């Protein structure tokens, strides 16, 4: 479980997260929606321990992310994260990209890492791309490669930050299908997305972010079809 309690985060004098409380339960898919600049990416970075916080606490499986004695490398193995920009190593094949982190971090043998990578590439539908370099993959394939890379660390949670925003429209579907597949397998996920239809259909709950606060959180269909807050209604009117 991921527990976010009264988190405040500022960059200098710019207050970006202003008192967020949120719990993500095991097996749950929580979608985060909200305008650009509302603090969604920053919150994910805080959960992953990439950004310090000024107040509050975030716990992942009971481990306090920002406590001084927390082993962040170990904690991050629980959290797979995939971003909007593709970030594969260009000089490594798809298989080598996926095998690298398990090999280095988990200290498994090269053969084991390759077998693991092969399994996860197949899982995201890239079984025939093992020896291909990232530049030869489409954007959708590169995002699936990024997902395979995260999955190869066998995380307990997956965090997705606008993973389809940079894709040509015809490539969005294959990446969303991969997320739906992970949900069907019971993966716990936090998905930052502008795709309200996806959020309503695939999210268990939706949290609507506004100005560094959660304006509204509830069951996905409720937040989209019957929002309680006027701000949510206005936001949905703009994006739907
Ligand atoms: P979102 O993901 O919802 O679009 P972000 O979390 O990226 O929002 O950004 C929230 C605010 O924090 C924005 O005003 C952004 O400019 C600012 N911000 C994000 N990262 C940094 C940073 N590293 N340094 C300074 N300001 C930042
Ligand atoms: Mg963002």
Automatic annotation (TrEMBL):
ABC transporter domain residues: 2-236
GO molecular function annotation: ABC-type amino acid transporter activity; ATP binding; ATP hydrolysis activity
Membrane topology: Peripheral membrane protein
CDD domains tied to this protein: ABC_HisP_GlnQ
Pfam family, one: ABC_tran
Keywords: Amino-acid transport, ATP-binding, Cell membrane, Membrane, Nucleotide-binding, Transport
Location, primary (coarse class): membrane
Cross-referenced InterPro entries: AAA+_ATPase, ABC_ATPase_HisP-typ, ABC_transporter-like_ATP-bd, ABC_transporter-like_CS, MetN_ABC_transporter-like, P-loop_NTPase
Subcellular localization, as worded in the UniProt entry: Cell membrane
A Gene Ontology term for the protein's cellular component: plasma membrane
Domain of life: Bacteria
Keyword Ribosomal protein: no
Family membership: Belongs to the ABC transporter superfamily.
PANTHER family, per database record: AMINO ACID IMPORT ATP-BINDING PROTEIN, GLUTAMATE_ASPARTATE IMPORT ATP-BINDING PROTEIN GLTL
Official protein name in the record: Amino acid ABC transporter ATP-binding protein (PAAT family)
Originating species: Chelatococcus asaccharovorans
Lineage summary: Bacteria, Pseudomonadati, Pseudomonadota, Alphaproteobacteria, Hyphomicrobiales
């Amino acid at each position: 479980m991921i527990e976010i309690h009264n988190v405040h985060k500022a960059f200098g004098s710019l207050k970006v997260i202003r008192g967020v409380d949120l719990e993500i339960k095991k097996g749950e898919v929580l979608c985060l929606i909200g305008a650009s600049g509302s603090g969604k990416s920053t919150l994910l970075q805080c959960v992953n321990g990439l950004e310090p916080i000024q107040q509050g606490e975030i716990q992942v499986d009971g481990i306090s992310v920002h406590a001084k004695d927390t082993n962040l490398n170990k904690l991050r193995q629980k959290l797979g994260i995939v971003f909007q920009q593709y970030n594969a190593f260009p000089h490594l094949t798809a298989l080598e990209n996926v095998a690298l982190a398990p090999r280095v971090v988990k200290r498994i043998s090269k053969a084991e890492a390759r077998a693991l990578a092969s399994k996860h590439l197949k899982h995201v539908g890239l079984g025939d791309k093992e020896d291909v370099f990232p530049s030869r993959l489409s954007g959708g394939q590169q995002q699936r490669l990024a997902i395979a890379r995260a999955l190869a660390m066998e995380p307990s949670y997956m965090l997705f930050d606008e993973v389809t925003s940079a894709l040509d429209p015809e490539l969005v579907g294959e990446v969303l299908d991969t997320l739906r597949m992970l949900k069907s397998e019971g993966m716990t996920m936090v998905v930052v997305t502008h795709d309200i239809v996806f959020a309503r259909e695939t999210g268990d709950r939706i949290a609507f972010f506004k100005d560094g606060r959660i304006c509204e959180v509830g069951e996905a269909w409720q937040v989209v079809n019957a929002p309680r807050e006027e701000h949510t209604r206005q936001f949905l009117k703009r994006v739907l």
